[in-house]
Amino acid sequence: MVEVVHEPHIINNLNDALELLKQALNDELDHFDLQILDLNKFSMHLTGDKFHQTITPSVMKGFIDLQNAIYRSYAQIKYNDASILKLSKHEKDVLELEVKVVDGSAGFELNIQELFEKLLGLLVGKMTSKHIFILVLSTILLYGGYEVHNNYLENQKEIRLAEIALEKDVSEKQERLATVALLSDGSANETNEVLARAAQVAPQVKTIKEEAKNASHSLIKSAQAAESIDFDDGKIRLSGEAAKELTKTSPNKWTDVRIDGIYHVVNVDSSHSAKRKIRIRNIETQQEILAILENDTLDQKNLNLIQEAEWGYNPVYLKVRAKELNTMYKEAQIIEAKEL
């Protein structure tokens, strides 16, 4: 039997990635080998007194948040869990961003092509799956160009215009409305429509999109002290004042959820007798969560079950309430324990 050797699908630009994603969604591809040959570098230029071939702590934080978003997006593709805890040191080292400070007013560049080549290298063996192929192409579209920043800005523009319109101070209101309204109009584009289709086939696309949106929020907020901000050689331009206005509202909000399930009790911190800190690991997702257990909320039987689960490393069913944002949890609280 003669083995069929497929030539890899080539990406020379983001339009190629978009066309391949459409073909994958339409079941028009017979293999999922992928090669990236040419993608423009991501660039951000800032002007202002603080920005002359330097990187300020706030801008550095913006790039760190971008790095963590990429880590979580990769973890979502590889492990189906957007937790950096899933990544090995080797994976983090491979995907570590190299931010280059370029000449002139403070300019920053990222070699996006190199980043995605490394990501593909880490996914060797998984790229035979249509599902993974869709996630990778979606990630390239979400992090590979200016559109994700443009989409974020347009969404925030609508939110802030509505919020400012409700404010009572008329004099400040008009000035702030004018600042925000200066942004160019970003109508719905084909990329958004195709990514929405991709999310219906592979729901993880939604998580990756949220990560990219949060990274845009942080990066733009980090540059609000600049006089002007320029992405990808002028494809997006805005003032520092506009960036400040647009990032006053977080793009996402923490929501109250229940995450009941079967957990291992990793450890218990009983240094505070009235409020124990318990690290639990969901046996299905392997995600670890730090939860609070207030002694006066559970009877002794529940406390004994949790203690026995820690000592014997036996799983226990826990009812847990928490706040959730993009599959991350905070303020988790154990409200009941049950034997399996």
Give your account of this protein's structure.
This protein has 340 residues and is α+β, with helices and mostly antiparallel strands. 44% of the residues lie in helices and 22% in strands. It contains eleven helices and 13 strands. The strands form three sheets. It has a five-stranded antiparallel beta sheet with strand order 4-5-3-6-7. Strands 9-10-11-13-12 form a five-stranded mixed barrel. It has a two-stranded parallel sheet with strand order 1-2. Helix 6 (147-165) crosses helix 9 (204-222). The longest helix is centred in the first third of the chain and has 23 residues, at 57-79.
Across the major sheet, the strand order is: 4-5-3-6-7
The termini sit apart by 52 Å
Q: How much is the radius of gyration in Å?
A: 23 Å
Q: Let me know the average pLDDT.
A: 84
The helicity comes to: 40-55%
Order of helices and strands: EHEEHHEEHHHHHHEEHEEEEHEE
- The helix tally amounts to 11
Helix/strand-derived category reads alpha+beta
The fraction of residues in strands falls at 15-25%
Characterize the overall form: globular
Profile the largest sheet.
5 strands, antiparallel
Q: Which residue ranges are poorly predicted, with pLDDT under 50 across at least 5 consecutive positions? A: none
Total strands: the figure is 13
Structure characteristics:
five-stranded antiparallel beta sheet; single chain; alpha+beta; about 350 residues
Q: Would you kindly provide a brief summary of this structure?
A:
With 340 residues, the protein is an alpha+beta fold. It is 44% helix and 22% strand.
